[in-house]
Amino acid sequence: MPLGKSLDNILGDYFGQTQISLDPVKNISVTNTLVEEIDLNNIELSPYQTRTKFETHKIESLAKDIKDQGLISPIIVLRKKFTDTTTPKYILLAGERRMRAVKLLGHTTILAVIKPEEKLSEKQQAMISAMENLQREDLNPVELAQTYKMLMLTQNLDEQTLADVLGNSSQYVKNYLKLLTLSKPVKEALIDKKIGEGQARHLIGYSDFEQLKYLQLIIEKNLTVKEIAELLKKGIQPIKMKIDSPFHSLPSEILLKADRFASGFPNSKLECKGDVTKGKIVISWNNEGK
Predict the structure, then answer these.
(1) What pLDDT does residue 63 have?
(2) How does 254-266 read in b/e, with b if 16+ C-beta sit within 10 Å?
(3) pLDDT mean across residues, the chain
């Protein structure tokens, strides 16, 4: 079953049947849907947004298009229930790229399709955010995996059911979900396109510290997927760490930076103490006889 069809089933006629005129009017009531110019400062991001990376040049290009042609499609927001203020607040459901582009142009308001909060369940809100992301071709692998995980949690889907909805195999879904088990530095490198999806997959299952060591080598040597597979198959350690004291819980990023620094000293070793909040690293070396 196509994901688009699933969305229609969840939202009924809200998106499938409603036609919105883009006539430049401040308020348009169309089949219980309001289209209005709203203040950008009153819009919050959806808690179900799994996309974190927006390429600057693409936002700038979109801003240019909006400047030349106007905003072709309004964003979609959910109007929050009034609390202790009379100023309306909104949650962004779809259109973050458009909102960023409009802000870049210096605008303070944006045209939005507004839906009352009580008209959409959290399950429906999550599905709209997912659809907004899955319809984009430039979603990075980590964001795609996070979107799949969010759908499973909010729509109560197992891997097989989600795979059926996506029109893919369950193994396809599992492979993406495994990316979420990677260490933070590896995921960030994947998001920033320093490494590719195939390169990252080879690091799944290794400890965070091992992943960090291999990541450094992959980037420095620009290793191909085949070269990484051969390296791991042979069990070659890319970096001989100089850490002398194992009793610590310092982040692996800090340890690797310290090891790089220590490598500049002859016959050096590291002594590490502490944890993520506080710690101490001592570098000692011996240059006698040289």
Answers:
(1) 93
(2) ebbebbeebeeee
(3) 77
Instruction: Answer yes or no: is pLDDT of 133 > 50.
Output: yes
- DSSP tally for the chain: helices H, then strands E: 13, 8
Q: What is the CATH number of the domain that holds 215?
A: 1.10.10.2830
Report CA 204 to chain centroid distance, whole Å: 18
DSSP code at position 243? B
Domain range enclosing 49: 3-129
Distance CA 117, CA 115 (A): 6
Order of strands across the sheet that contains 75-79: 27-30, 33-39, 109-116, 75-79, 90-94, 43-45
- Tell me how far apart the alpha carbons of residues 162 and 173 are, in angstroms, rounded to a whole number: 8
Percent of the chain with pLDDT over 90: 23
Q: What is the pLDDT of residues 237-251, one digit of tens each?
A: 555 444 444 445 566
Beta strands, E only, 165-264: none
Q: How many Å is the Cα radius of gyration of the chain?
A: 25
